[in-house]
Structures are given as structure tokens and as C-alpha cells.
Amino acid sequence: MSKQALLVMDVQRVIVDRYPDPAYLPRLRKAIDTARADGVPVIYVTVGFRPGAPEVSARNKMFGRLAGVQLPAAAAQANEIHPDVAPEPGDILVTKRRVSAFAGSDLDMVLRANGIDHLVLTGIATSGVVLSTLRQASDLDFTLTVLSDGCLDNDPEVHRILTEKVFPMQADVTTVAEWAAAH
């Protein structure tokens, strides 16, 4: 029998603030509450680096500007998971070092140790962490579901193309409400 986990990816305050959609966090909260009520593990994935970002190469186009930079203490608070969807005791926290939730993290080990073989993906951005995680998880033979309105992207057309045309090749795509109703 398949065992699911809900992945809540990159919903750190600093990221959420760049995607102004007032309905997003309440929808995501519904998915999280549904998962918890059904005993589905909730795994929060955040992007983070050590002080000075020694794991970042200056050659990395996305993260290279952080190489060797000492971020101010206020940056740590801005990088916390948004309080509207904050983790609760028992939730699993994973820190990744690149775009995919698997890159530089222990996510695969956590999933396999807990017998999880079906991932339900949510997060910001659809064209970033969701796409990268979906591709890698598919290659690792996980069963996948994407909650289309549990994902955000700064380009609505890119979001639409990914959720309607690209993701269905490797995942079931549904909405938070449809997924919640099925649980």
C-alpha cells in the first residue's frame, strides 16, 4: 500500500513576500490541515546555507551572489517558514542547498526511512522547486501528485503550462479542494 507525504516547499517568509496572492496561504493551510487530520506526514523543505554560504559556488547562476556573503541576523528571521503555515511538533524539516528539494538535503533518506513512496507537492515556485523536485522524484520512482493551486509562480502562463501540460506526464495534478475531498 502506498504511503503519502505532503511536501511544503520554499514557503519561507522572504519567498512568500515576493508572490502576492492573498488566497495562497489559506489554500496551503487547508492542504496541511487535511494531511495532518489523515495522518499524512507533512515535510517542510526550505532553502538555506551555512554562514558565508560555503556550499555555494560563485558560478551558480541562481545562488552565486550569496557565495562568501555573511547575511545579517535579520535575514535568518526572514528566511523562516511563513507563520500562517508554520510547522507543528512532529512535522519534518528538511534544508536543501539548491532548487530541488533533494539537492544537498537528506530528503530521500527521510522518505525511504519512513516508507514513503508517494509525494504530494506544493510550494513556491512552480517553475523552480516544484518542477525540479518533481523531475528528480520521478526519476527516483516516487508516485507523484501536484496540488496545482498549492503552487505559485511569478508567471501565470508558465504555471499553467507546467500544471496542465508538463506535470501530467509524470504526476497526477489536482487542486487542494479535490485532494482534500478525497481524504
UniProtKB/TrEMBL annotation:
Keywords: Hydrolase. InterPro entries: Isochorismatase-like_dom, Isochorismatase-like_hydrls, Isochorismatase-like_sf. This is Cysteine hydrolase family protein. One of its GO terms (molecular function) is hydrolase activity. SUPFAM superfamilies: Isochorismatase-like hydrolases. The lineage of its organism: Bacteria, Bacillati, Actinomycetota, Actinomycetes, Kitasatosporales. PANTHER family: ISOCHORISMATASE HYDROLASE, PEROXYUREIDOACRYLATE/UREIDOACRYLATE AMIDOHYDROLASE-RELATED. It comes from Streptomyces hokutonensis. Residues 5-178 form the Isochorismatase-like domain.
